[in-house]
Specification:
Radius of gyration: 19 Å
Order of helices and strands: EHEEEHEHEHEHHEHHEEHEHEHE
Mean pLDDT: 93
Oligomer: single chain
Largest sheet: 6 strands, mixed
Low-confidence stretches: 179-186
Strand content: 15-25%
Distance between the termini: 37 Å
Number of helices: 11
Strand order of the largest sheet: 10-9-8-13-11-12
Number of strands: 13
Structural class: alpha/beta
Length: 295
């Protein structure tokens, strides 16, 4: 499709069939579970339930960002097709992969001086990153040029809203994102933290909410408050979850009932292995286009 290729990392948390359908290339993060290394291949070789059950059973999960050498290989494979490339990385606020991609770009462009590679820090994560890539694919299919996609990506990335909540703090505590004391109190009091991604692409706790029902309602309210056009929002909405589909579906149902102009149904995806290795089970994430992130 066209004279350029849209590319990203596996942490877009869509699925492999979706990527094929939209003609989007990706390069994979890797992760270690227990003593074994795996490729984050969008759940092609491992089911989500296996990852989370093994984490619950005590196996440590760790991730590795895409190395510069892997980016070089990935970029060269596309440039050899005679195509230009726009690549969006996982947010620099949670990963160093943007720097690796830029180093790779500098090396590869010397070998392919007649080709163009645009690398953009998405400042996005999980299926919010996926919604960003999906939007670029829509623009490409409308006939937009590579330069137009690049300008859109840079100017609009902070309008992509991310709201996360978790009903299980176990792995946030284990990973040091929540202190043991705060996590213990949170679990005892049934506190479900609501977080979002800020203007620097960092995941920031915003509110402490008691009970799952109330945090689902609050996430819904955040979309009402921040979606472009409020309840007249006519864009797409993605939700991802880590082994808690019923919670994701409950939020999706509320949104579909309240936003009559929504572009299709809310799409629900599994949080991928890269992000899921840090959240563990029990996290739901909501993504839509809306107000600009300013803090």
């Amino acid at each position: 499709m066209g004279d350029y290729i849209i590319s990203c990392c596996s942490a877009v948390d869509l699925d492999s069939e979706w990527m094929k359908k939209r003609d989007i290339r990706y390069v994979s993060f890797t992760y270690t579970l227990g003593n074994q290394d795996y490729v984050d291949d969008m759940w092609t070789t491992m089911e989500p339930k296996e990852l989370y059950q093994r984490m619950i059973d005590g196996e440590d999960a760790k991730t590795s960002q895409v190395a510069t050498a892997e980016y070089i290989r990935h970029f060269k494979s596309m440039l050899k097709e005679g195509k230009d490339v726009i690549h969006l990385t996982l947010s620099s606020g949670i990963s160093g992969t943007y720097n690796s991609a830029m180093l790779a770009r500098q090396e590869v462009i010397e070998e392919f001086p007649d080709r163009r590679i645009y690398v953009v820090d998405s400042l996005a994560a999980s299926s919010g990153y996926g919604l960003f890539i999906e939007t670029l694919a829509d623009l490409r299919d409308e006939g937009k040029s590579l330069d137009e996609l690049y300008e859109f990506a840079k100017s609009e990335r902070l309008h992509l809203q991310h709201w996360f909540f978790s009903t299980d703090l176990t792995f946030y505590i284990k990973g040091g994102r929540v202190t043991k004391t705060a996590g213990f109190i949170g679990n005892v009091l049934n506190i479900c933290p609501l977080l979002n991604v800020d203007y620097l692409g960092r995941l920031i706790p915003r509110e402490k909410i008691r009970t799952k029902k109330k945090v689902i309602q609050r996430a819904f309210e955040k979309m009402v408050e921040n979606a472009e056009g409020g309840k007249d929002y006519s864009g797409k909405c993605f939700i991802s979850h880590s082994d808690c589909y019923d919670d994701a579906k409950a939020l999706a149902t509320k949104i579909e009932e309240a936003f009559p102009k929504l572009n299709g149904k809310v799409e629900i995806f599994n949080i991928g292995a890269t992000i899921g290795s840090h959240t563990g089970p029990g996290t739901v994430a909501l993504f839509f286009w809306g107000n600009k992130r300013v803090d």
